[in-house]
Amino acid sequence: MNIDWSNLTFAYTKTNTIVCASYKNGEWSSVESRKSDEISMNSYSASLHYGVECFEGLKAFNGKDGKIRIFRPDENFKRMKSSADYLGIECPSEEMFLDMVIRAVKENREFIPPYESRASLYIRPLLISLAPQLGVNSPSDSFFSIMVSPVGAYAGGLDNAAKGVIARQFDRAAPNGSGRFKVGGNYACSLYAGRQAAKEGYNAVLYLDPASHKFIDEFSSSNFFGIKGNTYVTPKSESVLPSITNKSLEQVAKDNGMTVERRQIPIEELASFEEVGECGTAVVITPVGQIDDKPSIEGKITKSYFYGDKNHCGPKSRKLYETITGIQYGEIEDKHGWCTIL
Asked: What are phi and psi of 240, to 5 degrees?
């Protein structure tokens, strides 16, 4: 193994094993570890044809004290169970989910970046169907696997603010649809707008609520938050994925004496925020320095919103970021018991 820990990106790295189990005929198989990352599936799988699949993302960290910490895996189980129930596919129990996450981390321990690198081991639970199926129905089988890969930051970094554009002519999710579940189709829906935005020099796309296009929803793969004064504000919407990082940031904000508001955010309120950021497992926080409003992504700017210095994260966002990462790396007391310590 020859890895440059200081130069990690958010990319695939071959590790020792993936950990898997199958659900057939009403019961789960024993858990197995596989050295190959390849999965054999029937070409008629409902996951391939109809997008019947869900996944999760969480991380493990090498702490300051030499201990390994997995951040809030119980919350990832709850969200995967919700997604699986929505799709109508069998999900492993919480005990099985957590045991397999821990097993995958232990079997790939040497791929957890050292504490000094400030990088992490990304953990990807995946739930799909392998069996052949032609009709549009929930499959009776499930295949559950845990994959891991060492990663750096997904985008930007704390001191490289994103430049965003509002996607007025695109929706990431439908009203009363699958937006609040972590299913692959929701991410596929963001790809075209993302490519169009990149051509125009943007690296963040902000979606509005699909019902009225009057309120902020979320970024392509991250939740939105804004800070005004001593208040942390984030959207309340049925089409937004419930981010575990955002949930954690809300609690940390309260712990630091801030007021937290989860509510509808009118587009016009973008002008009143002092700091704006994207938040999620892969980034924790990416500050947003500018958001442009246009009738279309490739159209002329009608209004621009600016936040702080594009080369520096705002002070309150930085405090929240440092608190979350401090807990993850064992530098700050984990008073809420969020970390599973190995």
From this structure: -105, 135
Which pLDDT does position 155 carry in this prediction? 56
Token digits for 216? 């902020």
C-alpha–C-alpha distance, residues 258 and 100, integer Å = 37
Predicted local confidence at residue 152, as pLDDT: 87
* pLDDT tens, position by position, 198-256: 999 999 999 999 999 999 999 998 999 999 999 999 999 999 999 999 999 999 999 99
Residue 342 covered by a domain:
no
**Alpha carbons 206 and 195: distance in angstroms, whole number:** 13
State the DSSP string of 165-190: EE-TT--SS-TTSSTTS-BHHHHHTT
Give me the number of domains the chain comprises: 2
Measure Cα distances from 136 to 24, 177, 179, 315 in Å.
19, 17, 20, 50
Please name the residue ranges forming H helices in 69-125.
73-87, 94-107
Q: Do 206 and 270 reside in the same domain of the chain?
A: yes
Q: Does pLDDT of 192 surpass 70?
A: yes
CA separation for the pair 142, 21 (Å, rounded): 8
Q: Of 107, 55, 108, which Cα lies nearest the Cα of 77?
A: 55
Between CA 95 and CA 132 the distance in angstroms is 29
Percent share of the chain, pLDDT over 90:
90
3-state secondary structure of 226: strand
Q: Is 79 helix (H, G, I), strand (E, B) or coil?
A: helix
Residue 337 lies in a domain: no
